[in-house]
Amino acid sequence: MSLYQEHVLPRIINVLCGVKLSQPLRAEACSGLSGRVLEIGFGSGLNVPHYPTDVTRVDAIEPSDVAWHLARDRVEESPVEIERTGRDAQQLPFADATFDSALSTWTMCTIPDAALALAEVRRVLKPGGTLHFLEHGKAPDEGVRRWQERLEPLQIRMAGGCHLTRQIPDLVESAGLQIESLDAFYQEQAPKPLAALTVGVATTPT
Q: 3-state secondary structure string, 73-122?
């Protein structure tokens, strides 16, 4: 991993993904989380202020040591117990049916094998457990999609493997999760190729 990827990029993401505009979206994604929660792509802990009071513990999956260091104050100040218990969402170190809920925000775009990670999330969720997600992906408009295809190679190199054209709802459903709610829209005040968002909740079979 390059110096840029390991040390610089996590700090850039901490700033860009922590903007005020994203806070209502994070709050929406976290709404309804309860019990023991798995958060993949924990990053610098930007979701921590939005955890509902029904959350009893969060197991954080985060590959970046720098991002975890940046999260220190948020973790220490949280009333919720938070522990970094893994680095790779594609290989989760938990038994089946461990978690009540899972959370993923702006994460599925960068995981090398997002389908495998989602299959792992389904495995470790209890029957009827919920996956809450806030992700960017393939735009609904053809003109925007063409720009995404042009920009994606550069985006992958500059943004830690971030893809612009992943079909997030399709990936979620292909993992055997049933989408219960879904809202698709362009984030305000952001370039459309980077701002085609989906926020939703999916459940595991009971």
A: HHHHHCCCEEEEEECCCCCCCCCCCCEEEEEEECCCCCCCCHHHHHHHHH
